[in-house]
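User: Design a sequence. Structure:
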């Protein structure tokens, strides 16, 4: 039996033969399409008689253009595009660089040394702007965006009232700390649980809603919470807000209150400065971010995370697979709300004051914009988007 080899010469001749054949067919198709529209034309002569004008030369130009275009497309353009696509695919298969492979670890390492670097460059008082207004502010929005990412990015449920859970967490800490004297470390998870409860309560009325209708209802929920905070003056003090919120401590061992005997600066013999508290809050926010990232990654790998992604892609197909869409939606709302509640309690500790003006619709819009800009479902992308948007805003102040 003769051996048949496919050499580049034979492949090239086959390609040219196919290109010529398809060019011929394209010429026939063009001739059939344009013979009546281009080759023949009706006109009126000097006697107002309808005459048929033949334009075979113009028709030949159309046919030749079609044939040449098809020949060039098959013989040269398509092979060139296929080669470029193959080169790009081969480049994508190559191993990513060191920075790309270890971007998250590098980012965490940079954040760990960020406060000492700022203190070394600007001093303790001068570093307040960079640690608080930039570092802590950005980390707060990273946490909020990661919480909304569970609802919008993973489950595909458009939520425009996410700031409501942020407010629930902040006011839960402010009220329980002021009236009952509970510690920050007890109220931090409690605020998350209370916000998750409100998330489940919101989830029940919107189980059958999707798209724009869901967005409108969640927007209304956020506004209802804000109006309640304004008008329930006996509890929330209305527009005056709640001030004098207790500071967090280092697990109850060291306090940051100036009058306390176990004040952090006094214990370690350091000069009194508010920078210690801000640096502590920065590392606390960083720890919360790392915990939130770990929980999100683990949830995505669990069945509930797969159910969220299935719900996002196609709810009908999700039901046909036997997935309970009711519990899937409720867990998405509750988990995202829990993140918002925890961040709200941290916000109250950082500010020492909360008021309804901090929880307007614009906050929900900013958080949603961060999620969309960073890429729904991408933790690293959302963190970068929060850094760009919030950091850029602070730079322009």
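Assistant: Done.
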């Amino acid at each position: 039996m003769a051996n048949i080899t496919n050499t580049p010469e034979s492949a090239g001749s086959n390609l040219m033969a196919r290109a010529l054949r398809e060019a011929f067919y394209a010429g026939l198709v063009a001739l059939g399409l344009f013979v009546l529209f281009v080759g023949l034309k009706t006109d009126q002569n000097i006697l107002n008689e309808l005459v048929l004008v033949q334009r075979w030369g113009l028709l030949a130009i159309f046919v030749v253009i079609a044939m040449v275009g098809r020949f060039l497309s098959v013989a040269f353009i398509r092979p060139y595009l296929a080669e470029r696509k193959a080169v790009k695919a081969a480049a994508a298969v190559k191993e990513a660089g060191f920075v790309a492979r270890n971007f998250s670890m590098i980012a965490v390492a940079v954040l760990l040394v960020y406060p000492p670097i700022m203190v070394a460059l600007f001093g303790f008082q001068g570093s307040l702007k960079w640690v608080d207004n930039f570092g802590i502010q950005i980390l707060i929005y990273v946490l909020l965006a990661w919480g909304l990412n569970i609802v919008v990015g993973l489950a595909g449920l458009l939520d425009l009232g996410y700031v409501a859970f942020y407010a629930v967490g902040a006011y839960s800490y402010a009220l329980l700390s002021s009236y009952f004297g509970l510690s920050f470390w007890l109220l931090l998870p409690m605020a998350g649980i209370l916000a998750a409860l409100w998330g489940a309560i919101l989830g029940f009325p919107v189980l059958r809603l999707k798209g724009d209708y869901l967005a409108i209802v969640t927007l209304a929920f956020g506004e209802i919470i804000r109006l309640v905070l304004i008008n329930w003056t006996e509890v929330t003090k209305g527009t005056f807000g709640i001030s004098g919120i207790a500071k967090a401590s280092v697990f109850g061992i060291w306090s940051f209150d100036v009058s306390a005997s176990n004040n952090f600066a006094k214990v370690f013999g350091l000069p009194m400065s508010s920078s210690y508290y801000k640096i502590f809050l920065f590392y606390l926010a960083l720890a919360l971010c790392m915990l939130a990232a770990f929980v999100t990654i683990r949830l995505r790998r669990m069945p509930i995370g797969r159910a969220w992604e299935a719900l996002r892609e196609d709810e009908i197909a999700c039901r046909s697979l036997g997935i309970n869409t009711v519990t899937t939606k409720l867990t998405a709302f509750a988990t995202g709300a829990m993140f918002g509640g925890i961040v709200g309690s941290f916000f109250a500790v950082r500010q020492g004051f909360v008021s309804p003006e901090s929880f307007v619709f614009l906050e929900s819009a900013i958080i949603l914009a961060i999620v969309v800009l960073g890429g729904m479902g991408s933790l690293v992308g959302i963190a970068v988007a929060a850094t760009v948007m919030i950091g850029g805003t602070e730079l322009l102040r």
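The CA atoms of residues 165 and 340 lie 5 Å apart. The longest strand covers residues 40-44.
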